[in-house]
Structure formats: structure tokens, C-alpha cells
Amino acid sequence: MKPIIGVTSKVGEDEFTVGSDNITSILMAGGIPVILPSSADNAEIEQILSRIDGLYMTGGEDIVPAYYGEEPHPMLGTVSPSRDQFEIAIARKALDIGKPVLGVCRGCQLLNVAAGGTLYQDIHSQLDEQLLQHAQKSPKGHGSHHVNVAKDSLLYRLTGEGKLLVNSRHHQAVRQIAPAFRVSALANDGIIEAIESREHPFALGVQWHPENMAAVHDADSLKLYQGFIDFCRENM
Ligand code: MN
Fold first, then answer.
1. Which residues are catalytic?
2. Cα(193) to centroid of ligand 1, in Å?
3. Structure confidence at residue 11 (pLDDT)
């Protein structure tokens, strides 16, 4: 049996959308992706989680800063309040019950906020240091900067690499890490590029877009999806 992976979607005015590389990557690794609705009450969220074997949180808009106790910074981008409400609730519940979770880009930030951490609303205006280019202008699947992976992390166990070349399309990042989480990878400028739970068997967030890299057959990105899907299958 293949594991069923719930995939969060972007809430548009006329349609819900998911970047197709997310779906392709899950399929390539042997999962069955199902796109989740973006509103549900607590009982419905419990029911959804009881039917899926893993939760996959996609990229997208900025998160409403009130979720981490802040007013909006002038550089805050587009937010999607209904999407935030649903995703924070389902992420908290998934963390609670130990359901495997993989978050990419916004999904990584969402996990941190859901677990009680904070974000930089805009890294370039809120940090004094000269940062790397984190909003690459190269093709989506092109690895543009490196991240240094902690050797004792889940991310390292999945990829077997202490250094990964990743793509980068973000202007926000994890600021204060959530209490139950730890840093799994840092960019050379100190930006947190991956986090994982210290208490949950598989709750990992990466700040990049491995789906775009897996779609062009990047070996480390494929290993990330394979590791996630294998873990979901073993825990069905
Ligand atoms: Mn980056």
C-alpha cells in the first residue's frame, strides 16, 4: 500500500492551486497526493488526519504576523488569512499526534509559527548584515546557495550530506525557533534554512523548494522526498 499524503493548497479567489512539482515529487517517491481543503473545523481536521499518512505543507504567501504576536512590517507581502487559519490548526494537530509532516518554504515557516516560533517578516530590511540573494532570479530548479546541515539531524540522515546546494525564493525566514524545534541547516549568512522537531519523529521544514529541484532530478531533493514517503509508509 502506498501512503496517502495530504497536500495543502493556495486559496485563490476562483480556484485552489498546488504547484505541480509538489505533486510530481510525491508521486515519484511513491506517495499518493491528495489536495486538502483550506477550511475545516477541529473535528474535520482530526478526521482528515486520521485518513492521511503524512502532511505536506506547500509554499506560498506570507503568514499573518499576528500569529506570532507582531504588527505588519511595511515589507510584509501578500497574506492569506483563511489558509493560515486552516494550516496552523492542522499543523498543530499533526505535531500533537505525531503525524509525519514535511513543510517547504512557507510550510517551514508555518511549522515554526504553529509550534510557537517567530519569523523575520522581511530578512533584508530586518537584518543589518549583508545577506545572500534569497530570491533567486535563476530558473526555479536551479540550486543557487549552499546550506550547512547539522550532522546529528534528520535532514542529514535523509540526505547523507553535510552541505546541500538549494534553490531560494523567500524574503522571510525563521527568527526565533519554536521551543520543541531545532535548527537542521543554516545558510552561510546565518539564515535558518531548515528546522525539525526534537519531540516528533518526523516534522521537518526546509526553507527552499525541493519540489522544483526533485522535478529536475536533483539527487538530494529526491532523497528528501523518498525519506519522507518511506517514513509515512512505515508508519501507516
Ligand atoms: Mn535561502
1. 105, 209, 211
2. 6
3. 87
